[in-house]
Amino acid sequence: GTTIIAVEYSNGVVLGADSRTSAGNFVANRMTDKLSQITEKIYCCRSGSAADTQTISDLVALSMSYHEIVMGRDARVAEVAAEFRNYCYNFKDQLIAGMIVAGYDDYAGGQAYSIPLGGMLVRNAVTIGGSGSSYIAGFVEQNYRPNFRRETCVKFVVQAIKLAMTHDCHSGGVVRVAVIDRNGVDRRVYYNTDNQQAECPSDDEL
């Protein structure tokens, strides 16, 4: 069970995910990091089988590292998404993997791509995935606005994931966020507090 989301804003993209890994009716890990770094400014959100998605992420990260050396430039978000699509489509009968690839490049700015089960690839300004996504589809459609400002976009992502965690028993833990723009990546962790206010813990608490 998982809730993942990526939203393009005016100068970049915001990714978010819950942190619960479940095994049947048991919580196997309550502090999982489902946001995996692929290149310096490109991340993926993982949903489905943890083993499958971690393996694909590692393979794509290795492939893109080689790609950057050969090309002599940073990998583009569309190239990384296409590499994920190749794995997810070619091995769709063996894998349980729903991915979101998002990041920033100088060629096209902030971008978010969805790769659901089966290996389809599509770019959307806002994309959601995982078991919790069905609970927040209406909220996302109603409240998303094009060209969000940075902190407004972060607030929207955090609120969406908290709503999913409230209704989906397979989503829970904390909210992990990555804000990516031309300056790099800003990683954050928010507690799912009782008053529903986003609170960022200190470094000593992480």
Quick recap of the structure?
Helix content is 32%, strand content 33%. It is built from 4 helices and 12 strands.
Which stretches are poorly predicted, pLDDT < 50 over at least 5 residues? 198-203
Alpha carbon gyration radius: 16 Å
Sheet of most strands: 5 strands, antiparallel
Q: What is the N-to-C succession of helices and strands?
A: EEEEEEHHEEEEHHEE
N-C termini distance: 23 Å
Coarse structural class: alpha+beta
Describe the oligomeric state of these chains in a short phrase. Answer: single chain
Shape: globular
Question: How many β-strand stretches?
Answer: 12
Mean pLDDT: 92
State which percent range the strand residues make up.
25-35%
The tally of helices reads 4
Secondary structure: helix percent? 25-40%
Describe this structure in words.
The protein has 206 residues and is α+β, with helices and mostly antiparallel strands. The protein has helices at 50-71, 77-90, 133-143, 150-167; strands at 4-9, 12-17, 21-23, 26-29, 35-39, 42-48, 97-105, 109-115, 122-123, 126-129, 175-181, 184-190. The chain is built from 4 helices and 12 strands, in the order ββββββααββββααββ. Helix 1 crosses helix 2 (77-90) and helix 3 (133-143) runs antiparallel to helix 4. The longest helix is centred in the first third of the chain and has 22 residues, at 50-71. The radius of gyration is 16 Å and the shape is globular.
